[in-house]
Amino acid sequence: MLSYSELLKKYIENSELSLSQIEVKLREKGLSTNKAYISKLQNGKLPPAGDEINKALAEVLGGDEEELILVSYAEKAPILKEIIDKLFDSFKIMLLSNKELFIAITGQMYNIEDQLNENYGNIIEYVMTTMSFKDKIEMINSLSDNLKGGGFVEATQFQDGY
Fold it and tell me: What local confidence, expressed as pLDDT, does residue 158 receive?
């Protein structure tokens, strides 16, 4: 997961806007920020900005507003990131423990059963380590909804107390 400053820096680079241009666009939105402040945010010299500035930054830079806000929360409250990481690790264990079920469901949807069968562990590891914080939360929510509805309860087996 990218840190707040890394994500902001990525958004700035992708926007191809200068800090001065960003400052002007934020001022047009009624925010009194300056390029020195933005520079400090992207270089990790200041804690993450508040929601209002993050929303405006994401809009100006063409970034994902929700992702920027979620990453800022995770950085301001590290316990949130720890909880999400533990839940996500549990989900990863469930996926690795239920290879046949996952391949049967996903492989047929995408017509990739053979590739999944051959490289299952590597694929799961790669996907799980490259997901954004927002994607992790969305995946946990989806799993939680399925578990509440009984969709996976009978079909899955948890290991190691998870």
Answer: 44
Q: Which residues 6+ apart lie within 8 Å of 22 measured at CB?
A: 12, 15, 35, 38, 57, 60, 61
Closest among 90, 104, 103 to 159, alpha carbons compared: 90
CA distance 116 to 126: 12
**pLDDT tens sequence across 109-142:** 666 777 777 778 888 888 888 888 888 888 878 7
Beta strands in the chain (DSSP E): none
CA distances to 48, 50, 65 from 70, in Å: 11, 11, 9
Chain Cα centroid distance, residue 102: 22
- CA–CA separation, 123 vs 59, rounded Å? 33
Q: Which residue has the tokens 């300056």?
A: 34
- Find the helix packing angle between 35-42 and 19-28, rounded to 10°: 120
* Percent of the chain that is helix, strand, coil (3-state, to 5): 75, 0, 25
Mean pLDDT over 145-155 rounds to: 56
